[in-house]
Amino acid sequence: MDTVKILDEGKAVSLTFRGGRERRFHAIWLRDNARDESTRAPGNGQRLITLGEISADVRIAAASVDERTLRVTFQPDGREIVYDIHWLAEHAYDGVHSRAPGWVSTEIETWDAGLGQRVPCADFSTVSRTDGALGDWLYDIRRFGFAKLTGGPVKIGALLEVVALFGYVRETNYGKVFEVRTEVNPNNLAFTGLGLQAHTDNPYRDPVPTLQVLYCLENSAIGGENMVVDGFRAAERLRQESPRGFDLLSRYCARFEYTGSAGVHLRSRRPMIELMPDGELVGVRFNNRSASAIVDVPYNDMDDYYRAYRRMSDLIDEEDMQVTFKLQPGECFIVDNTRVLHARRGYSGAGSRWLQGCYADKDGLLSKLAVVEKQRERA
Questions:
Q1: What counts of helices (H) and strands (E) characterise the chain?
Q2: Cis preceding linkage at 207, omega within 30
Q3: Cα–Cα distance between 353 and 216 in angstroms, integer?
């Protein structure tokens, strides 16, 4: 840290970091984000005061700096608070520039079929024993939106042990665990070997389950490979080819509906491509089987909307977007259901295919990953 300067009669402060990078912080922001024990609970870090307890006329009366800390005296209460310089550098908001709609976090890497042999994968027993290996696996899920796990037990309910590594099962009308059991040449057409287009699950829920686990118990049929597609890469390609199409799919809501079980009628209204207010790409919902009538698009935009919808569907179906693998008993994969679409290829011949599935949520996974990463920083 080089210098500190009070700005605008105490409404803000300017810090010049080594290398000449200048960042400004408002007095109200600094006071609201104080980390002292009277502002934040020492045990859990939760804020102890409301914004209404901070004067609307809060000003910086004095400020000094050294290599590690910024010391600020506020008026009108005369409180002196010390801030960690590194924390301020990490949380600086000055210099944030607007970006084009559809940008993705630096924590994310989009991909296509070129991912090839780099499919993220870990061993069940290893991630179960060591936080380091678990952290690496969770990091890959955050980065790529999916990952495999091998070497697991071949037993009913084993997928619950996978979820327990980072969080909790999200129970739905399908139960805690649902069966994906399909036999070739079945005596019931419900158990068919037909392929399925890549899709996100349960788009008719709000919120959707943000993670899905599929665990293999039997897979002796010919075919039946699992396939995943990065919905974010598909959205990026659509944006590059047709900015208007991308805008339409992200601006207008699609509708999804499910009434397939007695006593259940689920509906949602969300865009197929979901952006944050600042344009960050945060979600894709795509499931032709569960789509209901689109009624939120104006007449003059409907033709172009369907053109973009069709192109998004074509991109998802293209082989150069798809990563394919066949699970063996004791193997599973997990997908970020807000990003990665999954499918299966059709199968034929003798044999059977039995997977168990369940849902979970990303907040537990990201929480566990954050804890592991913090432990690594302290090590």
A1: 9, 22
A2: yes
A3: 8
Considering just the CA atoms, what is the radius of gyration of the chain in Å? 25
Neighbours of 374 (CB within 10 A): 10
Q: Convert the pLDDT of each residue in 15-73 to its tens digit.
A: 998 778 899 999 999 999 999 999 999 889 999 999 999 999 999 999 999 989 999 99
- Whether residue 250 contacts residue 242, with contact meaning beta carbons closer than 8 Å, is answered with no
**Contact (Cβ atoms closer than 8 angstroms) between residue 156 and residue 163:** no
H or E element in which residue 163 lies: helix 158-164
The model's pTM: 0.91
Look at the domain 3-90 and name its fold.
Answer: NE0471 N-terminal domain-like (3.30.2020)
Cis peptide before 76 (omega within 30 of 0): yes
CA nearest to 195, candidates 338, 348, 331, 323: 348
CA 360 – CA 367 distance, rounded (Å) = 13
- Give Cα 188 to chain centroid, integer Å: 37
- pLDDT value of residue 188: 38
With a CB cutoff of 8 Å and minimum separation 6, the contacts of 276 are 282
Domains of the chain, residue spans = 3-90, 113-375
Q: What share of the chain is helix, strand, coil (3-state, %, to 5)?
A: 30, 30, 40
Share of the chain above pLDDT 90, in %: 84
The dihedral through the CA atoms of 309, 310, 311, 315 has a sign that is positive
Q: What is the pLDDT of residues 191-219, one digit of tens each?
A: 466 677 899 999 999 999 999 999 999 99
* Three-state DSSP state, 372: helix
Contact between residue 109 and residue 144 where contact means Cβ atoms under 8 Å apart: yes
> In the CATH hierarchy, which top-level class contains the domain 113-375?
alpha beta
